[in-house]
């Protein structure tokens, strides 16, 4: 891709996307630049990613065709104030923060700008990201194609209407955290039964990966796939019964409602 891609902020999410893009050969390393605050991050990321690293946000903003704002939500206001005059009218600005709306972005730049509100996730690092995208009205079909090409290089994408964006962290932006908790819990359960720790993580994680692939690749309903595992009078249905008694599905839905409420609360403070 013949574009310069910039990142304001080079933390966990920016690194996952940059490494994903590089692994997929979307762009050469010299087509990516990123800024951070501390010398420690600048030196560490230069060493790890071999991209142009700087503490000069304006310089990154000025040279980017696509500019990711990859700082925490609380830092958006100050960062936009700093860079807004350096950003070109043709630059596509990508927000990845929970709770920052397109209206807030447009108002902060104080002029018509191309903005895409997105919600990626950290598995982008290994090319298995899931990102929701929501462009504003200033993006052309060609601009959206550029953004989809970038995000598809490190995973999959769905274009989502803005009124649903606060619900996305719960299902894909934040959900890797609870998937890791599930894997950790299964590994603990395996260790309790005498299985060595390293093998326990491999067994649990590969079972999760395989189950997810079954849903995506067979197109079968997850309930049908679950039924296929449950031998009548067998071991699996005993586990399913215990999970139902401890409100497994209800707990997950409640956690997701809390996640969505927090995203909405972040939106309201902006
Ligand atoms: N982590 C995740 O799973 C996901 C995160 N997000 C969103 O991504 C965004 C970033 O999160 P995450 O990567 O986890 O956060 P991190 O804390 O890991 O990274 C934040 C980065 O921003 C840099 N930074 C802070 N202030 C400035 C500034 N004024 N100018 C330039 N750089 C600055 C920090 O620099 P330094 O290192 O020098 O302090 C750091 O590199 C958030 O808005 C979050 O909502 C979205 C989806 C998933
Ligand atoms: O916890 C958060 O607010 C961000 C959004 C999704 C993942 N991390």
UniProtKB/TrEMBL annotation:
It catalyses: L-proline + NAD(+) = (S)-1-pyrroline-5-carboxylate + NADH + 2 H(+); L-proline + NADP(+) = (S)-1-pyrroline-5-carboxylate + NADPH + 2 H(+). Pathway: Amino-acid biosynthesis; L-proline biosynthesis; L-proline from L-glutamate 5-semialdehyde: step 1/1. The keyword Cell inner membrane does not apply. PROSITE patterns: P5CR. Its EC number is 1.5.1.2. It is found in: Cytoplasm. GO terms for molecular function: pyrroline-5-carboxylate reductase activity. It is an enzyme of class 1 (oxidoreductase). Residues 5-99 form the Pyrroline-5-carboxylate reductase catalytic N-terminal domain. Residues 162-265 form the Pyrroline-5-carboxylate reductase dimerisation domain. Pfam families: F420_oxidored, P5CR_dimer. Keywords: Amino-acid biosynthesis, Cytoplasm, NADP, Oxidoreductase, Proline biosynthesis. Catalyzes the reduction of 1-pyrroline-5-carboxylate (PCA) to L-proline. HAMAP family: P5C_reductase (MF_01925). PANTHER family: PYRROLINE-5-CARBOXYLATE REDUCTASE, PYRROLINE-5-CARBOXYLATE REDUCTASE 3. This is Pyrroline-5-carboxylate reductase.
């Amino acid at each position: 891709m013949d574009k310069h891609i910039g990142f304001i902020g080079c933390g966990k999410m920016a690194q996952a996307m940059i490494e994903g893009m590089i692994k997929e050969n979307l762009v050469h390393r010299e087509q990516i630049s990123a800024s951070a605050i501390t010398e420690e991050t600048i030196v560490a990321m230069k060493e790890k990613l071999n991209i142009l690293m700087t503490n000069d946000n304006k310089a990154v903003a000025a040279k980017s065709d696509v500019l990711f704002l990859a700082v925490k939500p609380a830092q958006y206001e100050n960062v936009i104030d700093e860079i807004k005059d350096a950003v070109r009218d043709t630059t596509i600005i990508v927000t990845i923060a929970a709770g920052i709306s397109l209206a807030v972005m447009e108002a902060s730049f104080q002029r018509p700008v191309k903005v895409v509100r997105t919600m990626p996730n950290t598995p982008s690092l290994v090319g298995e990201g899931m990102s929701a995208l929501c462009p504003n009205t200033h993006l052309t079909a060609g601009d959206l194609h550029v953004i989809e090409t970038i995000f598809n290089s490190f995973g999959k994408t769905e274009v989502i209407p803005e009124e649903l964006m606060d619900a996305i962290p719960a299902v894909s932006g934040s959900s890797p955290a609870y998937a890791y908790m599930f894997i950790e819990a299964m590994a603990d359960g395996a260790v309790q039964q005498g299985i060595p720790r390293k093998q326990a993580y491999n067994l649990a994680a590969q079972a999760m990966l395989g189950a997810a692939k079954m849903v995506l690749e067979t197109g079968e309903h997850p309930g049908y796939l679950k039924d296929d595992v449950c031998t009548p009078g067998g071991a699996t249905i005993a586990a399913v019964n215990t999970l139902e008694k401890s409100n497994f599905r209800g707990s997950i839905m409640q956690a997701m409602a809390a996640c969505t409420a927090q995203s909405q609360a972040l939106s309201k403070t902006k």
